[in-house]
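[Q] Does anyone have a clean structure-token version of this?
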Amino acid sequence: MPEKDKDQHYRQDLVEHLFSAKDPQTLEDLLSDLLTPSEFSEVSKRLQIFRLLEAGLPQRQIAEQLGVGIATVTRGSRALKSDTKHNTN
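[A] Here you go.
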């Protein structure tokens, strides 16, 4: 199986695994089993970046508030813009 197909298969398997959670605590447990505490924290911060961007906060303020680099916030902003384009079709 080509590497790209393997990666897609692994992603799908991850999504199905996470969807098996029956409640928020089970989902948190599944994520805790998969991610290091640092990874869990970073993923959580990325979600907050999306929320704060959607609320209209300036990127520099978000970076300072969450203790992340401006490049991380900019990446989140690009992802939101890309997602908006995909959802308007």
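[Q] Thanks! Anything notable?
[A] Residues 37-54 form the longest helix (18 residues).
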